């Protein structure tokens, strides 16, 4: 794309973006200006990407839910996940014009992804990968944060997961969906036990779970104990929903740290409802704090760690491998028009009722 084809005036790119300001205001589609470098448009380390699709994640609800308009920039752009096409590539990046890419550019600066174009440094993005051949833009935009977090949870296991027992708490969430798939089909776990509601049970089995346990039923812990009796304790628990009922049964369910046992808890809220946020939703529980202190004092052998998504070596290859082997189930709740249905997309995610990612398409 030549510079004259881009909407640039006075070294500023004018684009439409989905923005937020005060926590109580709805999202708004606004024109924003992105300063660019004269002539080259991008710095040597930057990419300019024409965005095709973005997706909304609970973390976007956190950013908006705790935003106060006097913190600059006043109009922040919602979202981190994106897919699109590189239109300008700095020579120091590993990309070229025309590359189809996906990733996540979430930052505290308010320069999110839900904009017609994004300008960013790929080396500083949490995720920036080429889209595997055959994955559509809307599918690619639904992947980064949730599958990246799932990969990071499983990578936290201090060894080879082949032949191990994995428990995924909250397998109906998007992070849970990819935790089940990656554990079973990429990391080679022997048994994947997954908790979800009956609504998500079929999807979870298709994703590779050997046993599905309904978390809404009182029998949940007994079913997990039954599994352990026959198959041995879990090597890793991936907790996507802060379901801390298992803390009371660590002895019976989880291997101690001396045998590499670990519980990875995805940092987030106690309730998956992000529509009316309160700080208290994010505080650690007494149960967790007690275990953490006891662990440090050598009184508890059960290791619990918080997971906050960061850049992870090997993530892109894992997704590529699963996709090319025909084993990746991409989980999307709905695809919305970014220009008209952005509030609906946001509300659907905030409600905690979405089954898979909610994607917004900029290029129809
Ligand atoms: N720390 C990080 O870097 C990071 C990154 C990504 C996500 N997260 C956090 O991880 C959590 C999941 O995010 P997500 O995007 O994967 O969520 P999501 O896709 O929006 O999850 C929606 C699903 O959650 C399930 N669910 C609702 N209430 C539940 C409960 N009480 N117990 C178990 N499952 C329940 C429902 O499936 P069922 O049919 O099974 O009920 C629903 O379909 C959020 O808290 C998010 O903030 C953190």
TrEMBL record:
Residues annotated as domain Enoyl reductase (ER): 27-360
Compartment(s): Lipid droplet
Q: Which Pfam families match?
A: ADH_N (PF08240), ADH_zinc_N (PF00107)
Recorded GO CC terms = lipid droplet; mitochondrion
Q: Which domain of life is it from?
A: Eukaryota
InterPro entries cross-referenced by the UniProt entry = ADH-like_C, ADH-like_N, ER, GroES-like_sf, NAD(P)-bd_dom_sf, YIM1/Zinc_Alcohol_DH_Fams
Identify the stretch annotated as signal peptide in this record.
none
A single Gene Ontology molecular function, please? oxidoreductase activity
What's in the keyword line of the UniProt record? Answer: Lipid droplet
Hey, which family's this protein in?
Belongs to the YIM1 family.
Would you tell me the protein name for this molecule? Answer: Zinc ion binding
Its organism's taxonomic lineage begins at: Eukaryota, Fungi, Dikarya, Ascomycota, Saccharomycotina
């Amino acid at each position: 794309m030549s510079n004259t084809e881009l909407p640039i005036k006075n070294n500023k790119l004018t684009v439409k973006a989905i923005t937020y300001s005060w926590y109580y205001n709805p999202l708004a589609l606004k024109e924003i200006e992105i300063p660019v470098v004269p002539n080259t448009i991008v710095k040597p380390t930057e990419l300019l990407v024409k965005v095709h699709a973005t997706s909304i994640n609970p973390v976007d609800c956190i950013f908006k839910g705790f935003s106060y308009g006097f913190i600059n920039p006043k109009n922040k752009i919602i979202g981190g996940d994106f897919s699109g096409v590189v239109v300008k590539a700095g020579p120091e990046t590993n990309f070229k014009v025309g590359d189809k890419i996906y990733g996540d550019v979430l930052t505290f600066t308010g320069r999110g992804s839900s904009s017609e174009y994004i300008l960013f440094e790929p080396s500083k993005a949490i995720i920036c990968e080429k889209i595997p051949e055959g994955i559509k833009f809307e599918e690619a935009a639904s992947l980064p944060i949730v599958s990246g977090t799932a990969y990071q949870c499983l990578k936290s296991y201090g060894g080879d997961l082949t032949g191990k027992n994995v428990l995924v708490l909250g397998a109906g969430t998007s992070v849970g969906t990819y935790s089940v798939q990656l554990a079973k089909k990429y990391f080679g776990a022997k048994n994947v036990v997954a908790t979800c509601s009956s609504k998500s049970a079929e999807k979870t089995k298709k994703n590779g779970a050997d046993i599905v346990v309904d978390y809404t039923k009182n029998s949940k812990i007994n079913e997990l104990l039954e599994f352990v009796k026959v198959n041995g304790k879990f090597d890793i628990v991936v907790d996507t929903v802060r379901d801390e009922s298992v803390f009371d049964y660590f002895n019976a369910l989880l291997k101690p740290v001396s045998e590499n046992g670990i519980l990875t808890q995805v940092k987030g809220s106690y309730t998956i409802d992000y529509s009316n946020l309160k700080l208290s939703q994010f505080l650690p529980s007494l149960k967790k704090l007690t275990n953490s202190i006891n662990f440090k004092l050598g009184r508890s052998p059960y290791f619990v760690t918080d997971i906050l998504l960061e850049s992870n070596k090997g993530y892109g290859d894992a997704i590529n491998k699963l996709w090319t082997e025909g084993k990746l189930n991409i989980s999307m709740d709905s695809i919305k028009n970014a220009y008209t249905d952005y509030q609906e997309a946001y509300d659907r995610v905030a409600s905690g009722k979405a089954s898979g990612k909610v994607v917004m398409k900029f290029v129809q």
